[in-house]
């Protein structure tokens, strides 16, 4: 379990994992603790993420906090105000400047809490997440339960056969899977693609 440091300086925390692993839930939990401590908190999310709400960050469990949707990560620097803590959800959907934005915030003594998918549906590193993971002082990898076998899941499997990396969806499009079930599913998709050719 993550324990907040007591020193007054900035740092970066990354919460990562597959879909349905509780990333946003953990982000909300940390944000709420900061609010209880009377810290000034601002939360951001990518403007394209309108699955549950256009303004709020909402977890799969329907917990929600107010947020500011932004189209480009550089907007965060103009909207952050005098925040002590900045939360960023769905970081994988942001542009590559997000890592430098977060670094600048941390250097300005802001605690930055980021949640996002570490891998896309193909099992590849997703968007700015690799850079964020490498520069973060604290990394928490959360796991889901494999929707095929019940084992620990680290992968997001896309049930629809198309090549769109950014496709908003829920259980209708995605499943959390363990490595074995993910690889088995990908092998079936590759076989189907060969048959379609």
Strand segment count: 12
The CATH architecture of the domain at 11-142 = 3-Layer(aba) Sandwich
Residue share in helix: 25-40%
Beta strand %: 15-25%
CATH C-level class of the domain at 11-142: Alpha Beta
Counting DSSP H or I runs of 4 or more residues, the number of helices is: 5
Strand order of the largest sheet: 5-2-6-7-1-8
On the 0-100 scale, what is the average pLDDT?
88
- Could you give me the name of the CATH homologous superfamily of the domain at 11-142? P-loop containing nucleotide triphosphate hydrolases
Quote the CATH topology of the domain at 11-142: Rossmann fold
* Topology pattern, helix = H, strand = E: EHEEEEHEHEHEEEEEH
Global geometry: elongated
Structural class: alpha/beta
**Largest sheet geometry:** 6 strands, parallel
Termini gap: 48 Å
Cα-atom radius of gyration: 17 Å
Which regions contain 5 or more consecutive residues with pLDDT less than 50? none
Description of the molecule:
This protein is an alpha/beta fold and 197 residues long. The protein has a domain at 11-142: 3-Layer(aba) Sandwich (Rossmann fold). It is 28% helix and 25% strand. The protein has five helices and twelve strands. The chain has helices spanning 23-36, 74-79, 98-107, 129-135, 179-196; strands at 11-17, 41-46, 56-58, 64-66, 68-70, 85-88, 111-117, 138-141, 144-145, 152-153, 155-158, 174-177. The strands form four sheets. It has a six-stranded parallel beta sheet, with helices on both faces. A two-stranded antiparallel sheet has the order 3-4. A two-stranded antiparallel sheet has the order 9-10. Helix 3 (98-107) packs parallel to helix 4 (129-135). The radius of gyration is 17 Å and the shape is elongated.
């Amino acid at each position: 379990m993550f324990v907040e440091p007591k020193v007054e300086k900035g740092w970066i925390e990354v919460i990562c994992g597959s879909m349905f692993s509780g990333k946003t839930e953990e982000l909300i939990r940390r944000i709420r603790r900061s609010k209880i401590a009377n810290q000034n908190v601002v939360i951001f999310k990518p403007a394209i993420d309108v699955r549950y709400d256009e303004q709020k960050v909402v977890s799969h469990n329907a917990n929600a906090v107010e947020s500011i949707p932004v189209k480009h990560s550089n907007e965060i620097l103009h909207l952050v105000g005098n925040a002590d803590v900045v939360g960023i959800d769905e970081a994988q959907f942001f542009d590559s400047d997000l890592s430098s934005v977060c670094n600048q915030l941390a250097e300005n003594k802001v605690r930055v809490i980021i949640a996002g998918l570490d891998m896309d549906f193909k099992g590849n590193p997703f968007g700015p997440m690799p850079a964020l993971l490498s520069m973060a002082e604290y990394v928490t990898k959360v796991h889901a339960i494999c929707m095929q076998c019940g084992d620990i899941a680290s992968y997001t499997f896309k049930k629809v056969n198309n090549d769109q990396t950014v496709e908003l969806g829920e259980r209708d499009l995605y499943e959390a899977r363990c490595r074995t079930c993910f690889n088995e599913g990908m092998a079936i998709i590759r076989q189907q693609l060969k048959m379609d050719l």
